[in-house]
Design brief:
Layout: H1 2-27, H2 34-42, H3 74-84, H4 90-102, H5 116-151, H6 156-170, H7 173-184, H8 208-246, H9 249-256, H10 261-273, H11 275-279, H12 281-291, H13 293-299, H14 305-315, H15 318-346, H16 352-356
Helix pairs in contact: 1-15, 5-8, 5-12, 5-15, 6-8, 7-8, 8-10, 12-15, 13-14, 14-15
Length: 357
């Protein structure tokens, strides 16, 4: 197992390198770079795309000597290019970025005057909170429901619950989030939950119990909106895993010995059936953490990593874009290794060394 883990860890390096190369190359062709953003703000356009007539990161000069494409002095534009590092060739900029990342130096945001790592640490608790609660609730609901559906396979209960969760899975996350806001956050119906944010403005003045209640009050709708799609996958996965195990010979042998149905189900079937479900826990969390956080955080005005990445992409804040991409990719790859370790923890009979051989 140790040799397998070592290979997986070493594989992280070329994987991260490939991810960064592809995304860095793509960014070079995206119009509206940070210099264009600044020039657009200077001219009061508010949109860098309005004056783009070619490349994204390069600012071309006009035919007038000493005057830039937007009528600004060419010296000023060159100063901006030097300030953002665009006076260097793309390959040199990429190699400098990799060298800095090796030293855990992710640079400073172009427009926020704060280091990228501080930004990530500031926003991460919101995304982790959303991901943990969503994953926990999904497992608490889906596992018992999946077991119940397996035991009552083919009954009306199985049919209508399957229809319900499939319909819920088919609803886009952003549409369901908006529906929750309209119904329960002061839209056209009830004002039960807050419209935005993770805490109230007077959060620091509340008692301990008041802080817990205020936090849960704010997180309820975002968590529900990000969890609804996970119910279908986990429930059906649990059901199918239990059905596969129930049909095996050892289950019939246990029943023939006179064991109760509960003893057979939870004493013998549960461990084997839950292998794939429990081992997939890290993957489910990372899926909620990165997959749905952008939409949910934006709709509910939660200041997390998803919203940070979205705003950085809009502003062309390259240090934040590449820093969050590097960190999120690294976390995703480490979670993949953790998922494999979970398989071994749940069932020690699994040996990845023999499987590779």
């Amino acid at each position: 197992m140790a040799a397998y883990l070592l290979r997986r860890v070493l594989l992280i390096i070329p994987t991260l390198l490939g991810i960064m190369i592809i995304n860095f190359a793509l960014v070079q062709f995206v119009p509206g770079g940070p210099i264009e953003q600044i020039l657009a703000e200077i001219e009061g356009e508010g949109d860098a795309f309005a004056g783009i007539a070619g490349g994204g990161n390069e600012v071309a000069g006009s035919n007038d000597e000493g005057v830039g494409r937007r009528g600004l002095p060419e010296e000023y534009i060159k100063e901006l290019e030097a300030q953002f590092g665009f006076d260097k060739p793309p390959l040199e900029r990429f190699l400098n970025m990799l060298w800095n990342y090796m030293r855990l130096d992710f640079g400073e945001s172009y427009f926020r005057s704060i280091s990228v790592i501080d930004l990530v640490l500031e926003k991460m608790p919101v995304s982790i909170s959303l991901g943990l609660w969503s994953t926990l609730i999904a497992y608490i609901v889906s596992i018992p429901l999946g077991i119940r559906k397996a035991v009552r396979d083919g009954t009306p209960f199985d049919t209508w619950t399957s229809a319900t969760i499939i319909v819920a899975y088919a609803i886009p996350g952003f549409l369901f989030a908006i529906l929750l806001l309209v119904l329960f956050a002061g839209g056209s119906y009830w004002q039960i939950f807050p419209l935005r944010g993770l805490t109230s403005e007077n959060f620091d003045e509340l008692t301990l119990f008041g802080k817990i209640y205020d936090y849960l009050w704010h997180i309820a709708l975002p968590v529900f909106a990000s969890t609804i799609a996970a119910f279908a996958t986990l429930t059906l996965l649990t059901k199918n895993s239990f059905l596969d195990e129930i049909k095996k010979q050892y289950v019939m042998t246990a029943r023939a010995k006179g064991l109760s149905e509960g003893r057979v189900l939870y004493g013998h079937v549960f461990r084997n059936a839950m292998l794939i479900v429990i081992a997939g826990l890290p993957g489910v969390f990372i899926g909620v953490f990165f997959g749905g956080s952008i939409i949910i955080e934006t709709i509910f005005s939660l200041d997390g990593l998803g919203r940070l990445g979205f705003e950085a992409a809009v502003e062309r804040d390259y240090p934040v874009i590449f820093g969050t991409l590097f960190i999120s990719s690294l976390i995703g790859l480490l979670i993949g290794i953790l998922s494999d370790m979970m398989y071994v923890f749940v069932d020690p009979r699994i040996d990845f060394e023999k499987r590779e051989g």
